[in-house]
Amino acid sequence: MPPSSTVTLRPATLVDLALLRRWDEAPQVIASDPHDDWGWETELQRSPPWREQWIAEVGGVPIGFIQIIDPAQEASHYWGTVPANLRAVDIWIGEAAYLGQGHGTRMMQLALQRCFAAPQVTAVLIDPLASNTASHRFYERLGFKYVERRQLGLDECLIYQLSRTDWETAGQDAQPGGPHATAASDV
Length: 187
Fold this sequence. Notes:
The protein is an alpha+beta fold. It is about 25% helix and about 30% strand. This is Acetyltransferase.
């Protein structure tokens, strides 16, 4: 894989507002997140301690978005009552030309690396739409296990979880160890 395929992460900022709004209208993003209003104008100006927002880039080109939260601390309590020491991830590729090339896998590997870098984190949650069978297969390939079906807001979702133990046991399949995935803070 050429170096231009390296996925890097940088913090999302207000400079990304137009980009994120455009991605919100992309069919593949709508298919995974049809009812959420992210409130980008406000949220890009906030940095609560329970949240990280990242732009994924390939060769300097923004291609996607990752949000990592502490669901027990998150202000809206979207996840309801959950135990401490979990993380939840939202991820999408906004640029359709970058779909199907392994970038989503590398993005998720970087997100997992960030989540599990905190030694107290025991597991990571995700909540794909129940109808999005392609995302279910994607997460299962990364080692996530189905937990339950749950209504979250207006959406019927499947909850998946990846435990620290399963992540560590999976080795290089679930962890970013290859040369083509780096975070801006790792460069």
